[in-house]
Design brief:
The complex is a heterodimer of chains A (about 800) and B (about 350). By secondary structure, chain A is α+β, with helices and mostly antiparallel strands. Helices cover about 25% and strands about 25% of the residues of chain A. Chain A has a seven-stranded mixed β-sheet with strand order 28-31-32-36-35-34-33, sandwiched between helices. In chain A, strands 3, 4, 5, 6, 7 and 10 form a six-stranded antiparallel β-sheet that branches. Chain A has a five-stranded mixed β-sheet with strand order 12-15-18-19-20, with no helix packed on it. Chain B is α+β, with helices and mostly antiparallel strands and about 350 residues long. Classes of the chains: A alpha+beta (about 800), B alpha+beta (about 350).
């Protein structure tokens, strides 16, 4: 909401403040000022002058030499302007003065332009006559300015006066941020009322009085509202013998300063009243309304209607139409129709001021793609009292300014008003909520500034009708607090019983995962929860893959953000690909984020959200590097049993020979592998990429921070190396299972120290060598103990078809 | 005999002094003190000495041996020290050569900011809790005093999934879920991902993070809210940070406020960073609306509370002076490495 200070002061005449004081005080009382612009920024030393004489420049065809009377003296000014003549009154910037910009209307320089005296082709010039652009404005906002050249004042303007003042540019326009609860403040009167309350000055709204011409409106028009749910009030008044022309300067200036282009008196009055009261109005040409009848009803499904911007739009049953006896003439609250548009020839005008259902207007405007100044006001849900006040104000202006006569009376089709709100007043509760100690009188003082009334007999506060947002004690507390000053409320800390600050176990395990990942060289990535369904194809998931059962967003930002991810890989792969593309070497990333698994589609209950710990890397390292990271994490998470790896993971996006499910206590807790080369191609990466995904709910269920000291071995260990040859298909894991199962309780550990395939080994076979450590807790081992254990292991290995090498 | 010993000693000392290698010293030792050494020879020739002189001569031999041993030992130590120093001189390295690093990974700035926030509030006795990201309309709006058709619902540009299921637009629904559990008092923060249908640009993202805070107890005041957030701001942005509470509106709090902190770049004097105002907006807050308490089964006559919501990305962008929000979701390693 952009509001000029001059307009606010019209209702708060005693308001005296600098711009910054206004910004600070209003912001701290709840009407935040986002920014402000001084209209006379860079304008100085500009007066009204009268051109006494014009002579041709002797050395330049395109220049003229003017003698200009500026009151105290006459100055000589050389100009190239062609629109001035003797006797014109013009803005003259004197030597040392400043203008906002150049005459071509290009963007204004930050500090304006200083005017110095100088010689133009040998003739001295002591200043400059200005166009409206040089004064920092535009012809749109000053429709009386000539198409080209110097701005010319009306004849009656006084010579020597401050031209900036005459143009109404000694003003500041404040941009207010209005919160949703303060519908009343989407109007100059609302802001002025807040300003009056903030600065403790009297608020003087306009006194509205319509005389009327003695005729009866009911002889002119009748109104029927068939959809009272969408239109709770419809007021209509008629003005006749309308004379279209420009509106008065003061009105044009206020509209222009608010960013509204002055058009003509009729349009300007409806716009002016809309700004002033926050109530949009519409003006119909009564002669174009058939049967002298207004009907407010829902549109037919699918019917078309041409709005006054010339566009044909398709309507539906939830859109409210304004109709006459025969046809539709406007979309209620959004835009009038082409067929009842006011033209210059209008003589009789029907004013409409109605209260439409806010949410319906909002939704309708969205559906037909037409959000107008009017609809953006209506959608907030207006107070029905405003309709009557606004229509009367408009008619009064028509009368006062002599633009026509007002037919007596008003047609008013109105639903009963909401009862005014009363709130029991308990000052001690307000003190308790705010943490202050104000007297009842002090509180009432603040409340009365906002036009709240205290009723002694009942001890209740009566809420003014324009404050539809105030319902209870907490609202009153806010009113008190904002005028007492949020700043003045003393700081304190909650007392009461102590509570334990902590992170949940799940969050602690996630934190641990981050630590391990980072220690292993992985940096944390973040990715979106929604992505494109194309991801499934990129990951080579078959048509019937359960991953494709994803939740769809009904109003996504686009196909690329349209489904909730069911698999976490795309984020890491996209991020790795971006890094690869930017030639970053050896990149390791991890992500901790949810996947969303619907229990059924379409969704009838909330989906399962599973936190996935996803790691991805390219460059240095391989499958086993990734496996190492996984195991480091499991160990740190207190999962000390051995994880198993099942190569039959069946992940289509991974290399078929280089993938595994990760099993812990025989449950799958994740998978890892090398990305399938075709998938790499889809992500435009010409490198090997390794990933691991750990399913955090599984991890959290099995993790533990409990640790038990197991003692440090006191007795010596016995180490036996064993070297064997076996078919390639036998996995190291199978060998290790046998060592573990058969090693007995003397087995302490084992490590693979050699793996070989090649010339010394027969085709299709490989050699593995393990070093096995035995130790007893309570004694030094004897050769016999170790031999027994080794024999068991060797027997087991032989059953698997493994040959021992000597 | 005495003279012989004296000469031998002189000779030995001379040889020791002229030794420049450990081997030489050893040689001297062997030559004089060894089994076949000269001093041993003297001892062996004791049979030629008159028996009454033998103790005297024996004493003399021992004295010479002791002296030589000591001198030899000292010379050896000196030489060893010299040699070690020589070796270390050769071993000198260029300490300015590059370090061998482990290339530890880096945490995302959002997480670093979140951990800071968590640390501050956990220290004040707050529990960190979570709630679902795909949420029921009831929790995201209705139970927060945003009934159907309320304009705030539109303003938040919600992603909808079905009739009553949506992507949460704020972390505030976690407040309601926590209150519904019925365990009082409550001191919690709820960090998490939220969604709004904003196109991606330098200051917007359709998915970002908030941290919600909620305190419910008897006798909680607006002053407590101010005090708590003032502490928070000081911890997060530095001891000299001041806070300003401006009246604002949120449907689920009353009274409501927005909070500005003094610009940490200019300290409040006004600079480009804070657009000249000296203040930077960081969060919204207020006293929990009595309707919200009531809907969650808490008696507003007995209990009161405050709530606040901080945008995590906003904190991260401000604190680490990141000028484009897109960087946070791009995961360029050159960006991440800076944290």
């Amino acid at each position: 909401m952009n509001t000029p200070l001059s307009w606010i002061k019209a209702y708060v005449p005693e308001l005296q403040c600098t711009d910054q004081e206004y910004v600070d005080a209003m912001t701290m009382s709840g009407t935040k000022v986002e920014s402000y612009v001084r209209l006379d920024n860079n304008l100085s030393n500009i007066v009204v002058g009268e051109i006494l004489s014009i002579e041709k420049h002797k050395d330049a065809d395109k220049l003229i030499v003017c003698q200009v009377d500026i009151g105290k003296e006459t100055v000589q000014i050389v100009t190239g302007a062609t629109n001035v003549k003797e006797g014109d009154k013009v803005p003259v910037v004197l030597e040392g003065g400043r203008v906002a910009g150049g005459h071509d209307g290009s963007p204004l320089p930050e500090k304006g332009i200083e005017i110095k005296k100088g010689k133009l082709r040998g003739i001295e010039s002591f200043g400059m006559m200005c166009s409206i652009e040089e004064l920092g404005s535009t012809r749109e906002m000053y429709p009386d300015a000539p198409k080209e050249g110097i701005y010319i004042f009306p004849k009656e303007t006084k010579i020597g006066e401050d031209a900036i003042e005459v143009l109404g540019l000694h003003d500041t326009v404040f941009e207010h941020e209005i919160t949703l609860n303060r519908v009343d403040c989407y109007s100059v009167l609302g802001i002025a009322r807040e300003a009056a309350a903030t600065f403790c000055k009297p608020f003087l709204p306009p006194k509205v009085e319509v005389k009327g011409n003695g005729e009866n409106i009911h002889d002119y028009i009748s109104v029927e509202v068939e959809a009272p749910d969408l239109c709770s009030r419809y007021c209509a008044r008629v003005c006749k013998n309308i004379k279209i022309g420009p509106s008065p300067q003061w009105m044009q200036r206020r509209l222009a300063a608010s960013g509204i282009r002055p058009i003509n008196n009729l349009v300007d009055i409806t716009n002016y009243v809309m700004e002033e009261y926050g109530q949009p109005m519409h003006a119909f040409d009564l002669d174009r309304i058939e049967d002298r009848k207004i009907i407010v009803k829902r549109a037919e499904e699918g019917e078309e209607f041409q709005t006054l911007d010339g566009q044909v739009r398709k309507m539906d049953r939830d859109i409210l139409m304004i109709c006459d006896g025969k046809k539709k003439i406007g979309i209620g609250g959004i835009m009038g129709g082409e067929n009842s548009k006011i033209t210059e020839k209008v003589t009789t005008v029907l004013f409409e001021a109605a209260t439409f259902h806010g949410p319906n207007i909002r939704k309708s405007a969205k559906r037909i793609g037409l959000r107008t100044d009017a609809s953006s006001k209506f959608e907030k849900g207006l107070d029905p009292h405003r309709a009557e006040e606004a229509i009367n104000r408009a008619c009064a202006l028509i009368e006062e300014l002599g633009y026509g006569e007002v037919v007596g009376g008003m047609v008013d089709v109105c639903q009963p008003f909401k009862e005014s709100v009363r709130i029991p007043f308990y000052p001690e509760k307000i003190n308790k909520l705010l943490g202050v100690n104000l007297s009842k009188e002090e509180m009432l003082g603040y409340l009365e500034r906002g036009e709240f009334v205290y009723e002694k007999e009942t001890g209740e506060i009566l809420v003014p009708n324009f404050r539809q947002d105030v319902e209870g004690m907490a609202d009153l507390a806010e009113e008190v607090a904002r005028f007492y000053g949020y700043d003045n409320i003393p700081l304190s800390l909650p007392r009461g019983e102590a509570t334990t600050g902590k992170l949940s176990f799940k969050l602690r395990i996630e934190e641990l995962a981050r630590e391990v990942a980072e220690f292993c060289g992985f940096s944390q990535a973040m990715w979106y929860s929604f992505e494109s369904p194309k991801v499934f194809d990129k990951l080579l998931l078959p048509e019937d893959s359960p991953f494709r059962k994803a939740i769809r967003i009904s109003n996504p930002l686009g196909e690329d953000f349209s489904i909730m991810r069911t698999i976490s890989l795309n984020g890491i792969l996209t991020s790795l690909a971006m890094n690869y593309n930017r030639r970053n070497e050896n990149v390791r990333l991890y992500e901790m984020g949810n996947i969303y698994l619907p229990k059924q589609l379409p969704l009838t209950e909330l989906p399962e959200e599973r936190m996935e710990f996803t790691l991805g890397m390219y460059g240095e390292g391989d499958f086993f590097t990734m496996k190492g990271v996984v195991e480091e994490f499991l160990e740190k998470a207190g999962m000390n049993k051995k994880a198993k790896y099942d190569k039959n993971a069946g992940k289509p996006f991974l290399h078929p020979g280089r993938q595994a499910n990760i099993l812990y206590e025989s449950g799958i807790i994740g998978f890892l592998g090398e990305i399938h080369p075709e998938v790499c191609e889809h992500y435009e990466m010409k490198t090997k990429v390794y990933v691991a995904v750990l399913d955090m709910p599984e991890i959290v269920a099995k993790a533990s921070f409990d640790r038990k000291y197991r003692g440090i071995a006191k007795y010596p260990a016995v180490i036996r190396d064993i070297s064997m040859v076996m078919k390639k298909g036998i996995q190291a894991g199978q060998i290790e299972d046998i060592i573990e199962q058969r090693g007995g309780n003397l087995l302490e550990s084992y490590t693979l120290f050699d793996i070989y395939e090649g010339s010394q080994i027969k085709e299709g076979y490989k050699s593995l060598a393990y070093s096995i450590t035995f130790r007893a807790k309570d004694r030094t081992l004897e050769e016999n103990d170790v031999q027994k254990a080794m024999k068991k292991i060797v027997n087991g290995l032989q059953q698997l078809g493994v040959e021992l090498r000597q | 005999m005495k003279d012989r010993l004296q000469r031998m000693k002189e000779e030995a000392l001379k040889q020791i002094r002229s030794s420049d290698k450990l081997e030489k010293l050893n040689e001297v030792k062997v030559n004089f003190l060894g089994k076949k050494g000269e001093l041993t020879a003297v001892l062996k020739s004791m049979k030629d000495v008159a028996p009454e002189d033998r103790p005297k001569v024996g004493q003399m031999v021992n004295d010479v041996r002791a002296e030589l041993e000591k001198v030899l030992e000292d010379a050896k130590k000196k030489m060893e020290r010299f040699l070690r120093e020589e070796q270390m001189k050769r071993e000198e390295i260029d300490v300015t050569l590059p370090a061998k690093k482990r290339n530890v990974g880096h945490r995302h700035p959002n997480t670093i900011a979140l951990e800071e926030v968590e640390r501050i509030f956990v220290g004040m006795g707050y529990e960190v809790v979570e709630g679902p990201e795909v949420e029921l309309d009831y929790y995201n709006f209705e139970a927060l005093n945003v009934p159907a058709e309320h304009p705030a619902k539109d303003e938040q540009d919600t992603f909808f999934i079905g009739n009553n299921i949506l992507l949460r637009t704020q972390t505030s629904p976690v407040q309601v879920r926590e209150m519904e559990k019925g365990k009082l008092p409550i001191r919690m923060i709820a960090p998490g991902r939220v969604f709004r249908s904003d196109e991606v640009d330098a200051t917007h993202s359709p998915s970002f993070h908030q941290v919600e805070g909620l305190v419910i107890d008897k006798d909680i005041t607006f002053g407590d809210l101010k005090g708590t957030l003032a502490e928070f701001a000081k911890e997060l942005f530095g001891e000299n940070t001041k806070v300003k509470f401006r009246p604002h509106h949120f449907p689920f709090t009353e009274p409501s406020a927005e909070v500005d902190v003094t610009c940490f770049k200019c300290g409040g004097k006004g600079c480009r960073f804070c657009k000249g105002s000296g203040w930077i907006e960081i969060l919204g807050c207020g006293m929990v609306h009595p309707k919200v308490l009531k809907m969650s089964g808490i008696d507003p006559e007995e209990y009161a509370g405050f709530a606040f919501g901080v945008g995590l990305e906003r904190i991260a962008l401000l604190k680490y002076e990141i000028d484009d929000m897109r960087l946070l979701y791009e995961n360029d390693i050159r960006f991440l490495k800076q944290f």
